[in-house]
Amino acid sequence: xxxxxxxxxxxxxxxxxxxxxxxxxxxxxxxxxxxxxxxxxxxxxxxxxxxxxxxxxxxxxxxxxxxxxxxxxxxxxxxxxxxxxxxxxxxxxxxxxxxxxxxxxxxxxxxxxxxxxxxxxxxxxxxxxxxxxxxxxxxxxxxxxxxxxxxxxxxxxxxxxxxxxxxxxxxxxxxxxxxxxxxxxxxxxxxxxxxxxxxxxxxxxxxxxxxxxxxxxxxxxxxxxxxxxxxxxxxxxxxxxxxxxxxxxxxxxxxxxxxxxxxxxxxxxxxxxxxxxxxxx
Length: 281
Hints:
Blueprint: H1 8-15, E1 18-29, E2 35-40, E3 44-51, E4 54-58, E5 61-63, E6 69-73, E7 78-83, E8 90-100, E9 103-104, H2 105-108, E10 109-110, E11 114-116, H3 120-135, H4 141-159, E12 166-167, H5 175-184, H6 193-200, H7 204-215, H8 219-237, H9 242-248, H10 254-265, H11 269-276
Antiparallel strand pairs: 1-8, 2-7, 3-6, 3-8, 4-5, 4-7, 6-11, 8-9, 10-12
Helix pairs in contact: 3-4, 5-6, 6-7, 8-11, 9-10
């Protein structure tokens, strides 16, 4: 089955260096209080609905997964989720990270947020194996849990309808991609759309239109997303002072950075670090 629209060779090259990390995996029986109206997670989530009804959103895209369906909520998207009070969810879920050559897998691919499990028993078996691997304490448990995440990701992609998986940007050497890379490498500066257009060799208005069409977001939204993504990584994976993080991302003051971060995530930098800080050297 051909599930990729284009650039399968390019994708294969990137996927050869995929690395994964399982944060947690559990069976969850929700009650009417389960939910959140605005949340930016530092990890991606895959879940399998066993029963119940509800609503989930990621960056404005809404899904209503039900029994026998898998859902995917990408890392660093603005999410909300609720369950039906009369028919609450019972579901398996996992939180994970998956990276390819320094980029998150979810940044490289656009996948459906909800798919039907081709074989419900197979999906249940894959998730149960992942939960079992995550609870083991032997030296090989991290390898087994990582492999279980890969198995589930592959199964999810195999369940996607034909043509529904595509690269986020199909030509990595295009003028638009060069402009995007420039912006990503210059987060400590005040990057403007005009400068990105100059790098790409287009008039700003034409550049903005092309960027929106190709990337699915405007240049301004792209810059905001990348600054937020970089801030989340530094807050959760390092002990750098918040003032240093603000400076590294081109903010004139910690106050301005804190206001920006809270507007994007709903939490202050300190609150986010306290909630999601990961062990680091």
